[in-house]
Specification:
The protein is α+β, with helices and mostly antiparallel strands. The protein has 4 helices and 6 strands; from the N terminus they run ααααββββββ. Helices cover about 65% and strands about 15% of the residues. The strands form 2 sheets. The chain has a 3-stranded antiparallel sheet with strand order 1-4-5. Strand 4 and strand 5 form a beta hairpin. Helix 3 packs antiparallel against helix 4.
């Protein structure tokens, strides 16, 4: 039998309604449906992947924009605080100086009055008043005098510059004289008191 005849017979068998031919046709149809389904799934998967990639790019752009804005805002904050610190350092003593200026005015008036004053006691009283006013202004600005009279030596506040024999037994180890007054500013020592201690 020649091959053309064989093929024709096979085609005829396929076209007949035999159960074997029907199964083959069903298998063929199923394969075709599976191939079509696979193509659809691949296409859907590609679309999903592309969508996920687009979403990721959008999120990345949003995060990048947020980062750039935050970075610029922090840079502006840093520049502003540096400027404020420099201004504070430059003009920080303005309040203190402003409170001392009236005392300078008092001193100027006292000096002017000393030229014509004949009563030494009145001049002395005036200078003491100005001194007391000055100490009060320092106190308002957080400056306090370190107390030394009849206190024991405390190296946190006092600097012993001389040791002399104590005039009495109860003055041993105590401060006998203050050579230079010490000061604290807001509880921090800005100048130690120079003292003479008895031994």
């Amino acid at each position: 039998m020649d091959p053309k005849e064989k093929r024709t017979i096979k085609d005829e068998e396929l076209q007949t309604d035999s159960p074997v031919n029907e199964t083959a046709a069903n298998d063929f149809a199923e394969e075709a449906v599976q191939e079509e389904t696979q193509k659809t799934e691949d296409t859907t998967e590609e679309v999903d992947t592309a969508k996920e990639l687009e979403d990721a790019k959008q999120q990345l752009d949003e995060q990048k924009d947020k980062y750039l804005r935050l970075s610029a805002e922090f840079d502006n904050y840093r520049k502003r605080t540096m400027k404020e610190k420099a201004e504070l350092i430059l003009n920080g003593g303005e309040k203190t100086i402003g409170s001392i200026l009236p005392i300078v005015d008092d001193f100027e008036r006292a000096i002017k009055n000393m030229e014509t004053a004949t009563d030494v006691e009145a001049v002395k009283t005036g200078v003491e008043l100005i001194y007391n006013k000055f100490i009060a202004v320092l106190g308002q600005n957080g400056v306090k005098v370190i107390e030394t009279k009849d206190h024991s030596l405390d190296t946190d506040y006092h600097e012993a510059i001389a040791v002399i024999p104590a005039p009495s037994e109860d003055l041993k180890g105590k401060i006998i004289d203050c050579v230079q007054t010490g000061y604290t500013l807001n509880e921090k020592v800005i100048r130690h008191a120079k003292v003479v201690v008895g031994e």
